[in-house]
């Protein structure tokens, strides 16, 4: 029997080698998954399964995301750990109150987790669809169609949530996800081609003297002997030694690409993430008006801060270049998530999925590996604080504790200072901290029994229907529960509408999660019955 036909293990088994169809952002492999039968050859597969640990992580991310967006749409507090949100090279003068700071810091893992899991998902999908006989052209078309569908959803949501802004392109986050999904999918196809060519070249270079066994590096354990030593086209494979060498060479290149694509947010920064020693503002209102480009996309403050005037390009390369690397707000584009500013998380997801697919990992090895990565990233985050490397906020913290001790390391002045990270665009310190937490959660969800993981209330429902959850929660929340805030608006430059930091806000958020759980579960059952290339399976 193949591995997905065996009874589920008591602890999650980290085996990605079984062919699974029907992948969306997280399907396509078996990562401690519980088998689920059903469908036919035109649908998922006779025996299909979803990955459990990443799905539970995705569900938790969605629940936290809903808290962040509920606070935004229901006017609970200003959307940032400081009052001026987490923008690169921007003077920060006042911290948000404690509940807002803690909530916002916790929800920082959401966007990195989404991009990371999406990068994983492209590898799973590529693997499963290749085993179903899909060509590279069909896979490329599939990635393109889904990216267009996600872009269309983003535009519709943007027009609904921010009508009247006048922008033609509204990228709250989904267009960034769509572009990076397409780029990561195409990168998967490129790696497949170059890895095979590199293995063949290595054999030729070595003269293939010893003629070792030729077998695909990532075949199913139960594959027939007639499949061994041949690729999808029936051609003789390169030697296993050459394949292994090419595999790890490509992993090393993906590691370098991850480093480059997160650090270019610092390298391309007009000020390299430093605030001028004379840069200061007399009030939060002045600061809000000065930073129109980098204010949080999606709040009513963004329009007020911009004063209705188009913002100048951030760089000398113009607005089109800026769209890819910086938050942009002008008469045509409102974008808070530049695609190339966030693609490092997708590349890391690709690298992680490739390593997990490489061999059958024991549950203990999976947990230990995830904890090891989490520990290394946590150490790197501490290094960014101590060594002043990888931050986009150098000299930018001007709160009372920093003004009282101007010569002290700004990140060591307080607990809030230590955990302050720049999100727009993400800094390497943001990358290290948020991905450390995400890997720690992956270790936790990998360690617990699969049945227990699936029983955590709501998380598997949200995780299995990620985009559906996002749309259903975000659109109505802004309009159903807001009222005029007369005593304590969540920002200090305009009156706003919302619930404020009240019991009504927290109860509404929890009730929203409870109501959405069975709806997402029902939608998950519906999409599981659709064909492998159905757009319904993407939501």
Q: Please state how the strands of the largest beta sheet are arranged side by side.
A: 3-5-4
Number of strands: 5
What is the structural class?
mainly alpha
User: What percentage of the residues does DSSP assign to strands (E)?
Assistant: under 5%
Describe the structure in your own words.
The structure is a single chain. By secondary structure, this protein is mainly alpha-helical. The chain has one domain. It is 54% helix and 3% strand. It has 18 helices and five strands. Strands 3-5-4 form a three-stranded mixed β-sheet. Strands 1-2 form a two-stranded antiparallel sheet. Helix 1 runs parallel beside helix 17. The longest helix is centred in the middle third of the chain and has 33 residues. The two termini are 32 Å apart. The N terminus is likely disordered. Keywords: Membrane, Transmembrane, Transmembrane helix. This is Heparan-alpha-glucosaminide N-acetyltransferase catalytic domain-containing protein.
